[in-house]
Amino acid sequence: MTEPPSPKMVRLLMELRGLGVTDSRVLGAMERVPRDAFVPAAFRDQAWENVALPIGQAQTISQPLVVALMTQALEVGERHKVLEIGTGSGYQAAILAKLCRRVFTIERHRALLREAEKRFAELKLHNVTTRFGDGSKGWPEQQPFDRIIVTAAAPAVPHVLIDSLTEGGILVAPVGEERRDQQLLRIRRTKDGVVTEDLGPVRFVPLVEGLPRAAKPAEKRH
Ligand code: SAH
Asked: 52 phi and psi, to 5 degrees?
């Protein structure tokens, strides 16, 4: 059973259209994923606003416009196998899951990953496979991927990720040293090498190598 779209959701989708989201498959996927299920209860009333929101561990669920534009830039097809680095709330992975065959997603904060996994199960997104670890190292057992999306910024795209793309594959990632100076890049792997396009300025939390130190007991939440 599908619930009718709420007025708040309809307003957000119209706003996204006005801001350049033209791909009806992407808008359709956003209509079918309840963003309010991916934000902490305290922020649920803002879930249908075009803003990034805190999800704990000093991380954020991206702004809907950024999710839409990145998904659109990725040119996801229904036969594709997609890798996401930075599961966070799981929202971006859920959108991708509606558009492709399988999503593999990696997160370095165990607590965030557990919550995202619960959401995937509740929403019956059975084509999402998760991994706890450092995504900057890729997912060697599962490569190659048709599409790769990185949802945290690094000074450069890790080479191992570009090497994990199929020929004709596309990677979308924010790149920049500083939080204030990041560009969204789209990299296509061709038989002759890679072609890079700059899609404009963005602002993401940093891609951090390695794993966090074990959470102190006071930080555990159950
Ligand atoms: N895609 C997310 C947005 C997450 S914010 C969503 O839809 O909600 C970026 C996430 O990347 C954070 O959760 C952060 O912990 C994670 N991250 C940062 N560096 C990482 C790394 N090296 N490997 C895996 N995840 C990483």
From this structure: -75, 150
